[in-house]
Structure formats: structure tokens, C-alpha cells
Amino acid sequence: MPPQADGLQRLAGAVQRRRAELRLSKDECARRASMSITTWRRVEDGDPVRDTTYARVDEVLGWELGASARIIDDPTAEPMLSEVHGGVRYSQPAISEDRLRHAIQNATIATAPTLTGAQIKELQERAIEELRRQGLLPEN
């Protein structure tokens, strides 16, 4: 599969997952994006569309502008969610649990090098548990 086609399939999967998270139908997404249902289906089928269409997809899904294009171009890209407050769009980077564990491990080793591996793992678990309790990380 050519790189562009692979990227389009990656985007299609990400769009389908996000639409399901938002509990929106394809029809509702197309309506909110001011596009035809056929165009929205093309995105979810992994078919190419205009660049301006991807920008409207980003907006409907609550992603920062350019997220769709990055997903197509970069296999490691994860879309950032964004919100509009007072007419200004804010984006917050998503962080995976694995990346968070790695950051905690590196910070712990740098600041408390005498801790054992078991102690570092316990610290990771407690930090992740606390972030879940605060609603900053999703439940498993």
C-alpha cells in the first residue's frame, strides 16, 4: 500500500473512533461540517478529499486544526483535542499512558536515583491512579 493510502486508512480509523466517542452519526457529522454525507463517507473510507475538507473534519471532531493532515503524513501522530472559549480555540496535547509512565520513570531516575525499580513502578502506578481519580486520564 502506498504511503498516502496507508495514511488515509490511518485517518479513516481515527475519524471513526472519534466519531464513536462523540456518539455522532455520519449524517450528523456531515451536517455539522457543512458537507455532503458522500464526502464524509469518503473520509471514513480512506479516500482522498480536498484539504479544506480535512479542516472541517478536524473542527467537527474537536481536533486542533491540521490534525487530519498530520495523521495522514505521520504514523505516530495523535490528534490533540481542542475547545473554543470566547472565540479562541485551545488545544491540549493527548498523552498516552505509556508516555506518561516513561516520563515519570525518567524524572524519578533523574531526581531520586536510589529508588529501586519496584519503587519507581509503584510511583508510576500511584501517579496514574491519581490522574484517573481527577478525571485527567480515562479509566481502563
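the 2nd protein, sequnce then structure:
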Amino acid sequence: MGVLLNGLDVEALQQLVAQVQRDPEAARALNRWSARVRWLGGFKGRAYIREHSFLIDEPADLAGKDEAPNAVEYVLGALGACLTVGFVLNATKRGIPLRHLEIALEGEIDNILTFLGLSQEGHPGYREITVRAYVDADADEGTLQAVWTETVATSPVGNTLARSVALRPILSRVAS
């Protein structure tokens, strides 16, 4: 293991970047991701991703058991996680040691009544998400702002939320 900066092996990171620069096809496998969610009864489900899994549920005020975050909360968590990874990556590439990083997110659904089938106005997705980064690092304000700007601009989850994505819904009937 090489020199660590922000918990990352700088040499391994540099090797990955160099490999992909030499052979962009080497990164092709990193373009496809998958997940599966199995219903567990009520509004609860379990998501399976690679060798990991997590619960999904609705809060009690939406008739769930409140045993886990709901899907739209996981969207906020996914965006926060993506921005965290991106900030650490971009700071580390610049040689900036981080002491503290926290991403706080708040989202507002356009109209929850459309999800519940009680309205045709608006849509059931987020109208706006506010993201705040709290950083303590060995860099000046301008440098940290440049890292943040690059992080937001290159965030896969952020770009997924900000752009139209083709959804291809396919229903397959299975026997129980």
C-alpha cells in the first residue's frame, strides 16, 4: 500500500487514472450498475446491490412501519454519498488533506398527492434538492470552491437527477 491521503491510496488512485487514460475501454465495465429490490410485505422491501443489501420502508405517517428510510430518502442519501466520494476524490487528486467533510441535503417533493393518486397536478418527484457541503481542509476558500464545483459537475448521481433519463419499464409475470 502506498501513501494514504484522506484514507485513499494515492498511488493506486493515480494508477487507475493512468490506466483509464491509456485505455478508455478499461473503464467500460464501470458504466453499468444494477440492483434488485424484493418486496417483503407492506411497504417494506430489501434492495440487493453486489454483495450488499439494505431495507426500504415508508414512515408511519405514510402507512409504513418506519423500519428504514424510504426510496426518496435513499435518493438524497445516494446523492450525498456520490458528492462525498467525488469531493474526497477531487481533493485527493489535488493533494488536499481533509479533516472534516459533511454533506447535508434537503429535498422538496413537487406534489405527493400525485404519488397517492389523488391529484393530476405537478409530479411526484423532487422539485428541488439543496445540498450544503461543510468542509475543514488545508486549502483556501477558492481552491475548496473549485473542488466543490468540479465535484457537483462530475457527480454521476447529480447528473442523473438533473438530466432526463430514459426509463424502460418492463413488466414480467412470474409464478409464485
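The longest strand covers residues 98-109. The chain has a mean pLDDT of 94.
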